[in-house]
Each structure stands twice: as structure tokens, then as C-alpha cells.
Design a protein that fits this description.
The longest helix has 26 residues, at 249-274. Strands 3-2-1-4-11-10-5-6-9-7-8 form an 11-stranded mixed β-sheet, sandwiched between helices. The protein is of the alpha/beta class. The chain starts with 22 loop residues before the first strand and ends with a helix. Helices cover 45% and strands 14% of the residues. The radius of gyration is 20 Å and the shape is globular.
Amino acid sequence: MKDLVNTQSNPHTPPANAEHQEVCVVVDAMGGDGAPQVVVDGARQVLESTRAEDLGIKFIMVGNVDASSLLKEQFPHRVELVASTEVIEMNEHPALAVKQKKDSSIVVGCRLVKEGRGDAFFSAGSTGGAMTAATLIIGRVRGVKRPAIATVIPAPKGNVVLIDAGANADVEAEYLLQFAAMGEIYARDVLGVKNPRVGLLNVGEEDTKGSQLAQDAYVLLKDNINGFAGNAEGNDLFAGTFDVITTDGFTGNIVLKTMEGLVSGLFKELKDIFYASTINKLAAAVIKKDLTALKNHMDIDAIGGAPLLGLQAPVGIGHGSSNAVAIANGIRATATATRRRVPELIAKAVTS
């Protein structure tokens, strides 16, 4: 077990000019509540950007080609269109939909990556559909037991990687070890955290706390993860104590949705308070700049999507409610994972 995961034995140095490396991202143009228009608008933001890292991003837009035709006309050398006739809906059973809808935008998109026509895949459509298709078609990294969703939480004291955030409701201690290893790699090599502090989500900080699963996982993480810093409690998510927090997908998804609801509700309440009277409006005007900065820092649209780690190619999953800004940032994050060779790093970690 000691050699199962070694996230430091193969230090990674990105290739020269990695941030400018050309990357082809296959995009599910039919994914999300506002698709296809919001997806096209998000891709357009990247294509119109003058940022050096954006100039190297090319697209294969999968879905209704009419919706993306203008994009193709304006950027003929950077946009390719691939038609698909079906869409996996949010309420469909993922495995059944992937099996039955062979010409869905998600299935076709994953197939294009598998065939080598694209480097990575991004979808804001059915999370279950994207996870199932990516796992079955693109395939897992050899040695990875279960792919996991790594959601980046924009906490006040620095971003925190929460893994798993919904892919695996039932886990074993060994899975949690691999989640921690993948999360550590993502925090270091994509987010730029030099020495990520990794925690195991639990009901207390002592190593004897929690279920038998949590106690078994604690031992594995302590023995195999160089950056392991102990158990993380719920209040550590915003405290800046950890850079990566590992848990099962059932717990992680509840934590994530609770936090999203809390942040949204908090800012709504603040807005109501500041508009309640003239004096409050004046007070709001005084601290408007600071409030805006805080809101922008905690804006999930700035993250754009969550990587599904453990696959043979980068896969980004966006929120169904994503706007164009979130789509653009999700595509950028997926391109960065490609340039940073995240699948390769994970493969080395689980086989060292």
C-alpha cells in the first residue's frame, strides 16, 4: 500500500511555454439550461480574448451546427463543427441515456476525444451523463479505482479543492486515498499551490474520530500522502486550514450545495439590508468596493466548472445554470488541465 500513491516521487515541470500550448477542447454545445446560445457565447469570449493562453485554444463544437455556424465563419481556423442529433436531458438515467443515445452531444464529444481529434472535453449538461460517457468512452487512468469530481471552492482565504463532490456516493478507504492524491496534484499543478495541505473531512480533528471508513482512510492518507495535515471539520472549508479536502461524493455534494445556498442567501440578505433605508444605502455606498471584491472572489462563475479527475484525458463539468462567463472559464480550466498534463501526473502517482 505504501507504493500505491506517491504524489511527490515524480515532480512535474510543465513544458516550455506550456501556457501557450495549442489545445483543442471538444465542447458540448447542447449542455446547460441556456444551451446552445450560452455555450456559444462562452466559447466566443475565449475566441475574442487577447490573453496569450486563450489564443492557443481551439474548439470542436458538438451539437446543432446551425447554432455555432456564425462562430465557425468568424473563426474558421479555430472552430470545427460536428453535428449530433440527440441530447441527454438532466432527468434521464445516465447509464441508460448514454447507452441509448449514441448520437447525443455528450457521447459524440467523448468519442472525439477518445479518437484523438480533441485533447479534452467540456460539458455543462447532464453531470451524470458526462461522467458516465467519459468513464466508459474516454476511460480511466490505469490504476484509478474511481474518477472523482474536484470542485474548487472560492473561499475567502484561498481556493480549496473539494474532492469528491458527487461522483461516488459509496466509497472505500482506498478510493479516498486516490481522491486525495488526485486533489493534491490538481491543487499543485493547476492551481499553483506549492505545498498543498490535504485534509480528510470528518466530525473531529482526532485520528480516532468518525466512522470506521474515516479511521481507515486516515491511516492510508497519513502513510501515503506527503501533504496530509489531518482531519478537516466542516468549519475548515472557509478557514484556510487546508488546500484540499477529501471525502465521499455523497457527503461532498451535500457540502457543496449547502455552501452554494448559504453564499447565495447571504448576499441576498445583505442586499435587502442595504436597500432597506436611506442610511443603509449610504453605508452600502461606503463599502461597495469591498463588498464587490468579496462577491467577485466568491463567485462560482469565476471557477467555471469542476474537473473529473482520473480519466485518460481532461474532462470539465460545468453547472447546468452556467452563464457565458462560467462556460468560458470552465473551458479555460479544462485547457489548463490539458497543458499541465494532469492525467499523466495522476497516472504516475497511482503507479509509483
